[in-house]
Design goal:
The complex is a heterodimer.
Chain A (H helix, E strand, L loop, with lengths): L1 H6 L1 H19 L3 H22 L22 H31 L4 H10 L1
Helix pairs in contact in A: 2-3, 3-4
Chain B lengths: L2 H20 L6 H27 L2 E4 L10 E4 L1 H24 L4 H19 L3 H19 L4 H33 L4 H11 L4 H18 L7 H8 L2 H34 L1 H24 L3 H22 L2 H32 L10 H4 L1 H15 L5 H15 L3 H27 L10 H14 L6 H10 L9 H19 L1 H15 L1
Antiparallel strand pairs in B: 1-2
Helix pairs in contact in B: 1-2, 1-4, 2-3, 2-4, 3-4, 3-10, 3-13, 4-5, 4-10, 5-6, 5-10, 6-8, 6-9, 7-10, 8-10, 9-10, 9-12, 10-11, 10-12, 10-13, 11-12, 11-17, 12-13, 12-16, 12-17, 13-15, 13-16, 13-20, 13-21, 15-17, 15-20, 16-17, 16-20, 18-19
The chains are: A mainly alpha, B mainly alpha.
Chain lengths: 120, 519
C-alpha cells in the first residue's frame, strides 16, 4: 500500500481528481461550481496523460548535439497543450452562458431556476 | 487534387473569420459569407468524392509529416459520402436561415466552424485529432444552441456543454489509455499495434469502454441522451435541423471508425462481450427512445427522442459486426440525417402556419399547407421504413445482418421500433390530414385553403412571398406563410429520402470497398 503510494502517486492523484470533478459536476446545484467540477475532472485526465510520458531519469526531448541519453516522450505534453486550449475555450463558453442565465433568473442555483421555470 | 480533403476543414474556418472581423463594417455580410463558404465546401467535397470514386481510398499526410508520426486524413467511400452530405446540409441550412434566422453575423461564423469540425471528424485518421474535431464540433454546437431566444436556450446549451464535455473527456481518457498501451495515435497503426499488445489487456479494454461511453454521450444513446431533447427543442429551427442531421451523425461515425478501423473485427472475436454490451445499450436506446417519443406532445421533442431511437438502431448495426449490419447502419446514418433535417425544417415551417408546434396544433394542417404537409408525411413514412424510401434500405440491412449474426433480439427490437415509429408519426399525420383545424380558426379554414392555393400559385414567381403573406392575412389567419426556401428544402429532403432509397444499392456499392478491408 505504502509502496503503491510512493511509486504511483500520480495515478492515485488522477483518480482522485477525476472522482472529485465528477462529484462536483453531478452533486452541486450551483452552475458555477459545476463548471469548476468539470475543470477539475479535465485536469485529472490531463494529469494522467502528461505523467504517462514521464521516464525516471529522462531528460527533456531537446537535442544539444550529443545524443545517447534517455529522453521523455514530448507527445503527451503536446497533446495536453491542445487539450488545455480546448478546455479553456469550453470554460469561456460555459461562463458566458452562466452570465446569460444569471441575468435572466437572478440566481445560479439549479433547483431555484427549475422552480422559477415551473412557475412561469 | 487530394489537397481538397485538408481544405474541407481549413476553408470553413477561414470563412468563419470574416463575419467576425468585418461584421462591424458590413452588418449583413454573414449570410453571403456563409453561402459562399458552403458552396466552396460543396465543391471541395465533390472533388474528394470524385477522387474516391475514380481512384478508391486515399490518404493525405498533413504538413508533409509521414504517418504514424504526423496526422493522416483519410478519404474513402464512407467519408466521401458523409462530407458530401455535410456540404449539402450546410447549403440547405444556410439557405433556410436567410429567412428563418438567426440573423447575426456570429451565427454564421459558428455555423461555419461547426461545418469545419464535422468535416474534420469525417476525414481524420488520427484518434487525438478526432478528439480535437469532436470538441470543435461540440463548442460550435453549444454556441449555436444558445442562439435560441430566451434563457431556456442558454440553460439547455449549458446542460449540453456539461454532459458533452464529460463525454468528450472520457473519449480523451480512452485515447490516453490506448496511447499508453501502444504508443501511437494513428488509427491504422493502432489497429496493428493493438493486436500485438493483446486485446485482452486491461488497458485496451478500459480504453475501449471509455471511448465507447464518450461517443455514446455525443451520439445521445439512452441513458446518456439527457442533453439532447432540450438542446433540440430550445435551439432555433435552422440550428436544430443542422445539428440533428450532422452532430450526432459525426459521433456515430466516429464510433464506426473506432470499432472497425482501430479495434477491427478481430477484437470482437477475441473479446465478444465488449460489442455484446454495446448491442444491449443500443437496443435499450431504441426501445426507450421510441417509447419516450410516443409520449411527447411537443413535436421537436418528439423528433429529438426519435433520434435517440434511430441512433440506437444505427449503433446496434455497427455493433453486430458483420458486413450486412454495418452497411445497414451506415445507410441508416445517412438516411436519418436527410430525413431528420427535412422533418425539423418541416416542423419549423409548419409551426409558423399552425401557430404552435404541439401535436394538436397540427390538426387540419394539410388543408392549409398542402405541399409541405405532404412532404412531411413522406419523410415521416420514410423514417418509419416504408419502401422504397431510404429508411427501409437501412433498417432492412440491419435486420438482415442481425438475423445473419444470430442476434434475434436486435431483429425483434428493430421491428418493434418500426411499429413505435409508426405510432408516433401516425398520430401527427392523422391529425394533419383527418382532423379539422382547431375551433377558433374553423370558419377561416376554407378561406385559408384558398390562401394556400394562392401561395402555391405564386410559387412560380421568384418573389411570391409577399403576395402569399398578403393572401394569408386576407384570409384572416394570423399565422405566417412558409418561405420558398423552406418549401424547397422539405420537398427536396422528401425527394432525396425516396430517391436515395431507390439507388440504395449504388450507395452500398460505394461503401463496399471500405467494409471489405475490415471483414
Amino acid at each position: 500500500m505504502i509502496d503503491l503510494l510512493a511509486t504511483h502517486y500520480n495515478y492515485l492523484m488522477f483518480v482522485a481528481l477525476v472522482g472529485l470533478g465528477l462529484y462536483g459536476v453531478t452533486a452541486s446545484s450551483n452552475l458555477v461550481k459545476k463548471i469548476i467540477g468539470l475543470n477539475i475532472f479535465q485536469v485529472g485526465i490531463f494529469l494522467f496523460i502528461v505523467t504517462s510520458g514521464y521516464i525516471d531519469g529522462g531528460s527533456p526531448p531537446v537535442v544539444h548535439g550529443h545524443g545517447a541519453e534517455t529522453y521523455v516522450s514530448p507527445l503527451p505534453h503536446v497533446l495536453i497543450l491542445t487539450a488545455i486550449v480546448v478546455g479553456v475555450s469550453l470554460t469561456a463558453v460555459a461562463l458566458a452562458l452562466v452570465v446569460r442565465i444569471y441575468e435572466a433568473y437572478g440566481t445560479l442555483d439549479e433547483d431555484t431556476i427549475r422552480e422559477v421555470r415551473l412557475n412561469d | 487534387m487530394t489537397d481538397a480533403i485538408a481544405l474541407l476543414v481549413a476553408v470553413p474556418i477561414v470563412f468563419a473569420l470574416f463575419p467576425i472581423a468585418f461584421g462591424g463594417r458590413w452588418e449583413h455580410m454573414g449570410w453571403g459569407t456563409a453561402a459562399l463558404g458552403a458552396l466552396v465546401h460543396l465543391g471541395l467535397s465533390l472533388t474528394v468524392a470524385a477522387t474516391v470514386l475514380s481512384g478508391g481510398r486515399f490518404t493525405y499526410a498533413v504538413g508533409g509529416y509521414t504517418p504514424p508520426f504526423g496526422i493522416e486524413l483519410v478519404g474513402d467511400g464512407v467519408s466521401a459520402v458523409l462530407v458530401v452530405l455535410t456540404s449539402l446540409v450546410t447549403v440547405a441550412v444556410v439557405a433556410y436561415a436567410r429567412r428563418a434566422g438567426p440573423h447575426s453575423n456570429t451565427f454564421y461564423s459558428e455555423l461555419l466552424v461547426l461545418t469545419a469540425g464535422i468535416s474534420g471528424v469525417f476525414v481524420t485518421g488520427d484518434v487525438f485529432n478526432l478528439y480535437v474535431f469532436i470538441e470543435i464540433t461540440g463548442l460550435a454546437t453549444y454556441a449555436l444552441v444558445a442562439t435560441g431566444r430566451g434563457p431556456a436556450a442558454a440553460l439547455a446549451s449549458l446542460k449540453y456543454l456539461l454532459v458533452g464535455t464529460v463525454g468528450a473527456s472520457l473519449y480523451l481518457l480512452g485515447v490516453g489509455y490506448l496511447y499508453v498501451a501502444t504508443g501511437t495515435l494513428n488509427m491504422a497503426d493502432l489497429a496493428s499495434q493493438l493486436s500485438s499488445v493483446g486485446y485482452g489487456s486491461p488497458l485496451v479494454l478500459t480504453g475501449f469502454g471509455l471511448i465507447v461511453v464518450g461517443l455514446a454521450v455525443k451520439a445521445a444513446l439512452f441513458p446518456l441522451h439527457t442533453w439532447q431533447p432540450g438542446a433540440y427543442a430550445e435551439s432555433p429551427d435552422s440550428v436544430t435541423a443542422y445539428i440533428s442531421a450532422l452532430v450526432s451523425t459525426a459521433a456515430a461515425y466516429a464510433l464506426f471508425r473506432i470499432i472497425y478501423a482501430v479495434f477491427t473485427p478481430a477484437f470482437d472475436a477475441a473479446v465478444p462481450f465488449a460489442l455484446d454490451a454495446l448491442v444491449i445499450l443500443a437496443s435499450v436506446s431504441v426501445v426507450v427512445g421510441s417509447v419516450l417519443a410516443v409520449l411527447q406532445s411537443d413535436l421537436k421533442r418528439m423528433l429529438a427522442y426519435s433520434s435517440v431511437a434511430q441512433f440506437g438502431l444505427i449503433v446496434a448495426g455497427f455493433a453486430i459486426a458483420n458486413a450486412t449490419a454495418v452497411t445497414g447502419g451506415l445507410v441508416h446514418l445517412i438516411g436519418h440525417a436527410v430525413m431528420k433535417a427535412g422533418l425539423f425544417v418541416g416542423v419549423g415551417a409548419l409551426a409558423g402556419v399552425a401557430g404552435g408546434r404541439t401535436v394538436d396544433d397540427f390538426a387540419g394542417l394539410a388543408e392549409r399547407a398542402p405541399l409541405v404537409s405532404a412532404a412531411f408525411a413522406v419523410l415521416a413514412f420514410a423514417l418509419v421504413g416504408v419502401p422504397p424510401a431510404i429508411g427501409f434500405a437501412g433498417k432492412w440491412h440491419i435486420v438482415l445482418g442481425a438475423v445473419e449474426g444470430g442476434r434475434w433480439g436486435v431483429a425483434l427490437v428493430a421491428v418493434v421500433s418500426t411499429l413505435l415509429t409508426l405510432a408516433y408519426f401516425a398520430r401527427v399525420v392523422e391529425r394533419m390530414y383527418f382532423r379539422d383545424a382547431p375551433a377558433p380558426a374553423e370558419e377561416s379554414v376554407a378561406a385559408a385553403a384558398d390562401g394556400g392555393d394562392a401561395e402555391l400559385a405564386s410559387d412560380g414567381g421568384s418573389d411570391g412571398d409577399g403576395d402569399a403573406s398578403g393572401a394569408a392575412s386576407d384570409a384572416g389567419a394570423e399565422p405566417e406563410t412558409i418561405s420558398m426556401t423552406a418549401r424547397i428544402i422539405v420537398v427536396g429532403a422528401a425527394v432525396a429520402a425516396v430517391g436515395v432509397g431507390l439507388v440504395a444499392t449504388d450507395l452500398i456499392a460505394v461503401f463496399e470497398p471500405v467494409l471489405e478491408v475490415y471483414f
